[in-house]
Amino acid sequence: MSVEQPLWHALTGYRLLAVGYAITVYVWALDHFRHPVPGAVYLGVLTVWTLATLSRVSSARRCTKSFLAVDIALGVVGILLSVYVDAAGAVNPTIPTIWVAGPVLAFSLKGGWRWGGAASVLVGIANILEQGEVTRPTLHNVLLVCVASVGIGYVVEVVRASERTLAQALQIEAATRERERLARDIHDSVLQVLAMVQRRGTALGGEAAELGRMAGEQEVALRTLVSSGLVPAQGSPPGREQDEPLAAGAARGGSGGGGRRIRPSVKRRPGRGGGTGGSGTGGTGAGGVTGGPECDLRPLLSRHAGAGVTFVEPGAPVPLPEPAARELAAAVSAALDNVRHHAKAPAGGPAHAWISLEDEPDAVLVTVRDDGPGLPEGRLADAEAEGRLGVALSIRGRMRELGGSAELVSVPGQGTEVELRLPKRAAGGSAES
Do 145 and 193 have their domain in common? Predict the structure, then answer.
């Protein structure tokens, strides 16, 4: 409901009370009027008009310009008719009394402070003509109506501008979320295939090298498209897979060269590696992939266990709504994919990765770390500027839509750690610890 709608409801109630007050005042002073019949007829018409047009003052759309013109004309006629009905000036209020403020307020709600100011001036002129001179009470009443109408009109204009801004912001947010989702899917599929074709084609040579070169050019163009037109920095190899290395292995919360290295006591499970995407950092956001049937998160993560990946899990199932569990598993796949492509162990071979799954009372925590070389300072920002959006999309975007968070801590020479935290309430509140 519009923020201004309660003002229209209040105006409807005001008009009913005002017409009742006008009738009461007229009947109370009936013996003092010189020509009471015309005044009674006018109040009858005013009452019928007020009751018949209640729907007209229920919203700005129904309150048309023609209605406003007739409405304020009826009020002005009542003010001027008071000169004839109360010729002796025995009764101070005009026949419509405070009812005339209703049309003025309707002008303010419909057209803003300028319309309200113009309507209040018109009513003020009619009051001065009815009195025959500018008196202090008359001027006081005119100014009160003018200030009230201008103030309410200004508030209405501010409210409408705020509503338009909010509507535009919501549209932009929805479009941005959808664009991030599409860009993430492209990043996790098409870009990876193009990068693989470029790399393998270069290695094979001949016609395959030309095909690889074309695939690399398309990868750069597509990355530029999904990153809102950012041009990759000069010197960046077009076929470089992923966005930035995930050289995980630092202890959670560590920083700098003095970070403490932690190796969990884990059991190895057979399985297959896999997954696509990139590594990431992130923050919290509104959950967008929640609800649905529950599934155990452990099998989705255990498939990554193998010669180069160690998976440690709790002994009990970790239930999550299936959409949230799959998105969380995809974020873990993104982190592992970067480990395979970029992280190298100190001895020169592929880095070893560890996945730790913890079922906390109020959240599910997944930690991915390896024994790679770590991330140089500023590497994440550079990767995003180059259009390599694994951090922004494959992990951070997923966790933001889930209502969780992604935190990356890197220790040069000792590795990096990605911590994915998904509150159970954000995931649907169905997981039990």
Answer: no
